[in-house]
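Quick entry, no commentary yet.
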Amino acid sequence: MKVSKAQAQANRAHVVATAATLFRERGYDGVGVADLMAAAGFTHGGFYKQFRSKSDLMAEAAACGIAQTVALSEGADIERFIQAYLSREHRDARATGCTVAALSGDAARQPDAVRATFAAGIEDLLAALGAAKGAQGDAVASRARYLDALAHAVGAIVMSRACPDDAPLADEILQACRDRILASLHDAGAG
């Protein structure tokens, strides 16, 4: 039975969304095409009708996942974003949390298309955070503060997730980094 163009687009979007979740949860190497397609409710053979390669899907899934984080950050000031980002809830939500925190280490070893998607997504996230605040003053210094806060927050999530969930160190990392980032932003007048 032939699928309509609209249904084919919906199926592709569903595969991308499923991949975005599975890749964040298991990493790029932890998800095979057959497992991915089964999780999306399709056969393995249908993959290559929709995507040229797993790398192409990785780039699309990264864009999808990063867009979700950007959407959540829009309208939030940087301090509220940091509070939510460096929470235990976000840390424990590996499959639905920030793609940048979940997959940056993996992305560094991927083809240029995947890395370019991450670079564009990070730019979008910085723009959303800066736009929410209406950054004033020196644009270069303001961008550096937001970039520092974002990189610090991503690193804190990565380190906290590397610890056992119940380890006191996992929560200590989040608290110490959250306090330091917020103090830095407050001192700089960014919040």
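second:
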Amino acid sequence: MIVSVAACPQPPLLLPELATGAAADLAPVRAACATAVRELVRAPVEQVLVVGAGDRADSWGPNDHGSFAGYGRDVPVGFGGDGSGRTFGDLSLLVAAWLLADVAVPRLAVTVPAGASTDECLATGRRIAADSGNRPIGLLVMGDAAARRALAEPGAVDAEADGFDAAAEQALAAGDPDALRALDPARAWALSAVGRAPWQVLAGAVAGRRWSARMHYAGTPAEVTYLVATWRPR
């Protein structure tokens, strides 16, 4: 059973080793993510399951590992095992593993393609809920909102991006799976909002239950919108 949820963004600049001169700009995001992870495991959980966007649909175990070498610094990360498993390179898993470095409970992960349909994401979420059974599981859901401003014309007003980001923020702030389910995949793809698919996996995993939510951060530093929230069952 899913007993806690944390939603965090995935900028590699969360790592101070990578941020260098931009470290101060991301400090509020970094602090909010640390708070969200503490909240995630505050209720006793047997396992933390990461949900993130990846190159393909896949499952990842405790011995799998990765590195931020492709982002400028060889910072190794993993899910608490011996590092003998497969190597992952998806940014969602890299950042999640870094955020969970001090978490003592077992960690696993699943990835879904950023372009997966809503139905595919919901089905993945339902499988996660079914597989959890009666075990208390915490979900760490990774993903950013709109990034088009950073890719196209930094600093430009983008009403479509603002509208999408507002809808995503409201859904996470309200603990509303139905509102996450309503996010448009095509619109998210056009805005480079890679969080849409993982958020809809969350919607499938917790559908039919009522949640209390807390928004820890919502902002657009570096022209990308980052949202940090935690959910608890009512």
